[in-house]
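Example 3.
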Amino acid sequence: MLIIKFRSGGLVNKAHIDIEVFTSSLCSNCQRASFVVGQLLEETEFESVTWSEVDVVAEIDYAVALGVLATPAIAIGGELVFSALPSKQQLRDAIHHYLSRRRSIDE
Amino acid sequence: MSSYTIGEVARQLEISVDTLRYYEKIGLLPKVSRAESGIRQYSDKDISRLKFIKRAQQMNFTLAEIGDLLKMREDPQHVRAEVRQLTANKLKEVEVRLSELGTLRKELALLVNLCSASDEDCPIIDRIDENE
């Protein structure tokens, strides 16, 4: 598996979620996507969030199963959420949305 | 109602005239009506049946299976239980194939999108070829 794991800090707890950034070597915006995700997860509110880069060529079956049709793409908690580079705010909103959905399921 | 010569049908459906005659001989196609001159005149219904045969063959169904499926297609309420079962089984096969094709379609779309970033040969497809 060509997946590089990063953790934004703090212990993984019940609210742990994983963000996957789907990248490829030809993609000019992929580095930017990883940068945006990494930078956002430095914030303390997301200390339970981990993220990883997934090379779509090495992991093509997984990428296709998730519905990735272009790079960069971002999945949150195993669901494809962005099929293009999001802004930091869009990503923040998406993580909050995911967390609130998770909370309502857990309750 | 339109009618078509065997040559027109062969061109339209890309099925050889020999194969068209063979389908009629083995009963996959009911006796095709003839003009006074003896020339076969295929009807729209014949064309529809031939299109079905062609699609089923592309799914690798045997001619015997296709014959049964055609009976189901003609008169679904009065076919034998085995034919109904065969049709249900074939439906499952088509659904599996559709799902596989859907995955292939997405995979190809991803590769095309990745390669559109490159003006030259596609290095990603080259790498996949190397790995195989």
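The longest helix of chain A spans residues 88-106. The helical segments of chain A are 30-40, 60-66, 88-106.
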